[in-house]
Specification:
Elements lengths: L5 E2 L1 H8 L3 H10 L6 E4 L2 E5 H19 L1
Antiparallel strand pairs: 1-3, 2-3
């Protein structure tokens, strides 16, 4: 398996600029990658999935500027 890095919520918040409640709402609506359960009360996000989500937003912006 390739090097997979997990991001905790604070890291995801920093990367996206979103607050906790908005991230969880987007996940619930299917508009953001879901978290991975890493403990009984802990979750994290796969960094590559979050990065792909960000790249998709950038690509959509570029398409609208054309």
């Amino acid at each position: 398996m390739a090097d997979i890095k997990l991001l905790r919520l604070t890291d995801v918040m920093q990367k996206t600029g979103f607050k906790k409640s908005w991230i969880y709402l987007l996940v619930k609506q299917g508009g953001f990658p879901p978290a991975v359960k890493i403990g009984s009360r802990s979750v994290a996000w796969v960094e590559s999935e979050v990065n792909a989500w960000i790249a998709e937003r950038i690509n959509k912006r570029e398409e609208t500027l054309k």
